[in-house]
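User: My instructor asked us to take a sequence, write out its structure as tokens, and then describe one feature of it. I'm not sure where to start. Here is the sequence I was given:
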Amino acid sequence: MKTDLRYSPAEQIEEAAETIQSLWSCQPRIGIILGTGLGKLASEIETEAVISYDSIPHFPRSTAIGHKGQLCCGTLAGLSVVTMEGRFHAYEGYSLAQTTFPVRVMQKLGIDLLIVSNASGGMNPQYHIGDIMVVEDHINLMANRNPLMHIAHEQLGPRWPDMSCPYDPELVARAMEIARQENFTAHRGVYVALTGPNYETRAEYRFLRRIGGDVVGMSTVPEAIVAAHISLRVLALSTVTNICLPDDLTPTTGEAVVAAAERAEANMRKIVRGIVAQEAAQLNRS
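Assistant: Let's start with the prediction itself. The structure tokens for your sequence are:
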């Protein structure tokens, strides 16, 4: 996907949203980005429309392993949701403005909450493969890149958005409570984002752990930055798919990461379903 200079960013967002609305007329309350290993959540949605990214103007194309490249639109736990089956990454060759474009489109459709999932490498020695980490903060080390660079259009958001609390504390607490009720391991922690696509060296893992990282991955942070830019609440969930202890490091493959994420998927789905059900209950009370 190349940026079409005939359209301003706001016009691109508008055109993409109008195309989706022509195929699905509902207003979603929650947007969900299905990262590696969470694809089965789409099967639980009462589907009203499936829209290929190819048919949406200005949308990138997903090339990552296990990412279908379509929107699944419908209801989950009684609430209208729009779900991305496949996200975009800088390592696919896209700018961060392109990788986060769908977040702006979903906000245009009407969402006020974004749920993001990902697979990550665990650097905290207390973490194990299959654990879920609820992201409460992040460190952006994506090669000095930021999705807000070159964006100075007031209709898209403020020039200098605050990032003191990009992940909603109430949602973090609720996710942790769901994990406790369902009796599986979840942690609060810090996600470090690197550009990829290679995995990190031993020295890099030591550095990332020393600066405060608990897990490391190649996504999520750009989406969270844009969500903060447009005042969306964010819940980010990370499945630990490999252990990254520099003194006991084993080779990592993309296939192994996907397999580990799929084994932990059931617990990830419990949190997402629980949060959506709580949001639906709150909406019904109001």
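For the description part of your assignment, you could build on this observation: The mean pLDDT is 91. Try explaining in your own words what that tells you about the chain.
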